[in-house]
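Hi U.,

Before I forget, here's the chain from the pilot set. I'm dumping it here mostly so it's searchable later in email.
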Amino acid sequence: MAKCVTCGDRKGNRFCPAVNGNVCSLCCGTKRQKDIECPTSCHYLMKGTEYQLDRDITRKINADLHAESKDVFQMEEVIPFVTSMERFFVDQFYHNREVNDDHLHESLKKIYAFQTGKLPVLGAENGIEKVIFEKFHEVDRKARNLGESLKATAILRIIKSIRSSSGGILGNRNYIEMIYSQHTGKGKWSNLFEKLESNE
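Structure:
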């Protein structure tokens, strides 16, 4: 195997279209979008960006959303924004068994990245993302009085809810079931919410 065209030390195990040659994984990871002008279509760029976004989101959730007393879901001005998104998920996807929590999670990650400037354009890769992004833009326009930072935190909080209710296994529909019960009073989680309301 040929050596990396950028460092000349390690084996070049990834083809890099930007340098028209093979680079090592270390150079790919450390020089990406810095010393190497990566095309947006590069598989390694997309994977690396997604990995970094996951890490950033996890870090932000752990740092900013750990205190329930400061829960953004309890803020009166944020409730309509979050409720509109969640009600849309219920109406649009509850009866579509092909949609699971992972679809919502991935779409919301992109919305968060867009809101925080990590993603320049909110482009849909499939039909599910298309309708979610359209709804987000609609809800975003209606919530003009809500600051962009607060909207980003609200989206982050929904992501946290999806991760928590799914137990880390995003292929299931626990979050969809949970918000269905919250918004309709029916479904698998309805008894739990009735008990919580009666205890308040």
